[in-house]
Structures are given as C-alpha cells and as structure tokens.
Amino acid sequence: MLNIIQLLPDSIANQIAAGEVVQRPASVVKELLENSVDAQARSVQVIIREAGKTLVQIIDDGVGMSETDARMSFERHATSKIRTSDDLFRIRTMGFRGEAMASIAAVAQVEMRTRRSGDELGTLVRIEGSELKTQESISCLPGTNILVKNLFFNVPARRNFLKSTSVEMRHILDEFQRIALAHPEVAFSIYHNDAEVYNLPAGKLSRRIVDLFGKSYREQLAYCEEETPYVKVRGYIGKPEAARKTRGEQFFFVNSRFIKHNYLHHAVTGAYEGTIAEGTHPFYVLFIDIDPSHIDINIHPTKTEIKFDDERSVYAIVMAAVRKAVGVYNLAPPLDFESNVNFLSGFPGSDVPQRPTEARPLTTSWTQSEQPTERHSERKEEYRSEAMPRRQSTQNWQALFEGMARHEDAEPNQEALSFEQPSEAEHLPVPSASVTVGSRANKLVAAPVATEEPGQAMLQLHNRYLLSPVKSGLMVIDQRGAYERILYDQFHSSLTRREGVSQQLLFPKTVTVSPADFQMALEMQEELVSLGFVFEEFGQNAFIIRGVPSVTVDENEEELFSSLLAQLREDTGRLKLEKAEVVARSLARRSAARHLTRLSELEMKALVDQLFASSNPGYTPGGESITNVLTLDKIAGLFSA
Questions:
Q1: Mean pLDDT value across residues 209-214
Q2: Domains in the chain, start-ordered, CATH in brackets?
C-alpha cells in the first residue's frame, strides 16, 4: 500500500500560516507596526490605499537590517528575539514567532528597502507569493520601508471575504490606535488615499489620548497609578459623566501589548460602581507592568488574550488603583454631612423635625408662605402621591381625585411612544423648572388605575416591566425591548421605502467625530438620510447636521449622531447584516433606552397593542426575549415548601 502522508510545499504551508496571521489588511498593519516599534523607530509613517486592499506601506527610522537579515526575515520561524526555550517566558517585545513577514509574503506582493545607519548601501527585496523575485543593493535612507501590494492577489476567495472600504479602514485605525497608545514616545502618522488621518507627535500619554480622541478628553482624564512588588498599574481613566453606552474606548496593555480581558474590565467597572449609569462603559487606558514569567501570551494566535498566574491579585490591584483615582480626583459624588437628607422634613404633618440648613435642594416653592399657584398645587399633590408614606397619602385622597378632575377635560396622551427625554424631575420636583414626560396625569397617580373590566388592569414595575394578567397566568413584558421592536419596524420601514420623516433644525449643529466614524458616516449616508438625518461634510472629521428623524427631536442632536455612529461601529463589526438592517437595529437600540419612563394605563395598552402588531412581538431585533409568561403553576411553586 502506498504511503499517503506527505510534507506540504512551502508555498501552501505559508498560505496556511497566513490564515492565522493575516486575516485582513489591519493584520498587516499591526504586524508591521510592531516590527517598527521593536526596531527602535522614533517615527513611523503609514500609507494606506483602498483600505489596504491595494497598498499598505510602513516607513520607519529604526535600526534597519543587513542584507542577510533582510532575506532571512521572510523565512518561516526566523526571529531575532528567541534563542532558547527559556526566552519564551521572558518576552517583552511585540512580534517574536517569526511568522509575520513569511505569512504576508505568501499572500501579497511585498517590496522591502532597508539599511542600517552604519552601512553605505541598503538592500531591496521583492517577493510575490513566497517566491523571491529580486534581491539587490540600493541607496536608501536608514531604517525600513515595506510596501505590501494587492493583498490576497493569489487567494481570490480570501479577497472576496473582505468587507467594505470603511469597515476595513476602521479595523486598520483600531490597530493603529492601539499601537500609538502603547508607545506615546514614538511619532506616528497615517494617510488614507493621500488624505491625512492622524499625525501624532511624540509626547506624553495624556497628549497622545487627546490627539487620538479629541480635545474634549482633556477635561475628563484622571491619572491612575498603583505599584506592588507583583504588578504595577498606571494610566488614565475618564470621569463617570463621560461614560458611554457603547464599548470601544477601553484599553488594557500588559507590558505595552494590547490585550482584551473581560475579567479585568469587570474590575474597572466595579470600581465605578454607583457613579455611572447601568449599561454604560467608562473610558480608560491602563498599563499593567508585570514580570513576563507570570503571564502566558501564547493562548491566542493574535496575542490579544493572555493568562495571569494569579488573576485574582491583578483584579484586586486594578480595582484598587481605579477606585483610588476616582476618590482622589473627586470623580465620585461627595458625601454631604451638613444638608438635610430627610425627604419629609419641613412638610405639614411630618414627625421629622426640620433642621435649618443653608442648602435645601428638596424644598419646593409651595412649602413657603406665598399663595400657591395651580402649578404649585399640582406639584404638591404629585409629591404627596409619590414620596409621602401610604398613611399620609390616604389622608389626602380627595386631592388625588381633584388633580385627576383637572385633567379629565384635557386630551389624554394616546401615543405609547412618547419621545421625550426622561428626567429626574419626574420623581423629585424642582422649583426652577417644569418637566412634562408623557401624560401629565401620570404624575398624579402613584398606583395604577383599574380598568373598566375587572381583573384586566396592567401594572408597571420600576419603569421597566409591564405586568398583564392572561388566562394561563401573568405575562411580563420588557418595556425597553418592546420599544426597540416597535422602533426597529418603523426605522426599517423608512429605510425600505426611503420615506423617513426629517425635522429640520432651526440652528444647524456641528459635530466632530473620530476618523473611523467619519468614514462610516460617509458610507452609511444614504441609509442615514433615509431615516431622516440631513447632514453634510464640514472639514476634516466634522459634519453639519441640518435635520434629524422626527421621532428624535427632543434629543441632543450632536450626542444622538455621534452615539449612533458609535453603535454602528460596534454593530457592523459584530453583525453580518445588510446596511439597512444594521442602521435600523443600531438606532432602535440607541433610542429604546430613553423610554424607561412611567406610562399611564392608556400608554401601556397602546404600547402592548403596537408590540403585538409588530413583525415579531416575541423578540427584539437582536434575538432577546420581550415577553415571558409566568404560569399559575410557576407562581404556585413559589409558595410551595
């Protein structure tokens, strides 16, 4: 019988290795930038054409290579950083496996010029598909200049899997940002189709952050540092009020190598507990310096995931460092031991003595001796119905019906989708402003009003869930999910029919976004216009917004536009969907979070009716459940022994 196992040819073996190392143009940028940093470059220039599909060029002023090293760098497993197996546990450089150059040369046309500062002549090497075409001596500047042309020219199937120009460029910018943040002492610049995207001078980490993410970050950075014999943590964190609903601006670096670590991310968010809203993510750029012998960096092909030998200690130290920074820089709300915190103090009939203090934020104008107006009376009844104990509210039950009587003649709010910005004034009335959310009658009723049909009343739990009796038990409806499904159907219909209604702004707004978001907005412009956005370019990475979708007119236009782009950036990298589908999902998810407000009985019914008239009332566009039925058997089981 003939033998059937054979050694693969080098060309095929290199293409297989390239499948791990070179997944897209951003992989080439990452590997070559890391090589430039390891070559002690002080200035690195990146030139991109067609999001790297046509050209990726990296120019650095590093130490360069000799003629022999230039040729050897394209051999598999050829590296200058490992001599013995023990070196694997002392790695502090970036690339070390010796696969990057060989893998890139296997799927592209590569041209490299390199010269050491002490040599008179440099070396030119041309390789196409792992095949050496040219090697000769030339005159060139010290350092290394590498051109990677026509990526995947010999693997058309791989090339067909590349995404659009904006998506691939966003991945390139992500890798560029990570390398630039990890090495602020090195000057970086990047150009796409001859247009400058970033030009970052060498400097401190704080300046690098501001240069990358914008001047607004200058006011929200706080330095963070904690040092122990085992590990050192340093970097910058953002103020709680700057936390965003989308992830993407959280960076961990271990020994200057970017990593993704959900466990440590939980440590950071845990340190912010009580200072940021649920579902938001703080900004941070944190460096962890640790002895390489305590980590394993070979558990993932791209080296973005690592293992610590004592993860709990690292977790505790990171949390302590961030919590210390939050406290030192007064990022957390201070404890006021002077002001009166008793809600009932100063109100008629209260047993709590009033302590005279200079600051009384909860004292409303109707508690003063002046003659109360109609608005003051409404606030008084609102407070009694919401904040006073049940014993006292029953003594004033007539006021409840008096308040409702004033609103019976007014037209009730029939729309379940109330697109008004929620406010804390809904719960604690402030004398300096009058805020109306949904129906004004909502604020006068602390408990749900019974419907005409007994047993069919709907309840709202914590402004988040709707409870409705059904024959089999109790149906629980996720209010946010219901809004997301209804809004998604509206937005998707607008995109499909190209009939999105736009509300023109009286005063156009200017918004500046990141280069990646700028590219995405240009690519998604047709879909965004179909939703109702009206905008145009206004200089580098900036737009003028002249109109927004009519259902979002109560929002801050700049924040709406920039946060939508951030949500799109996250969704396009995660979802394999058409543009219209991604845009509709992103805006629906972005808008639904604003509707966790109290609803009247009519609004609850209208919301449920619209939900069950939607295309898929059981699930959100992302596949999350919206409804769940607690059967009578399940409820009975809660009380069984």
A1: 88
A2: 10-203 (3.30.565.10), 206-328 (3.30.230.10), 372-446 (no CATH), 478-612 (3.30.1370.100)
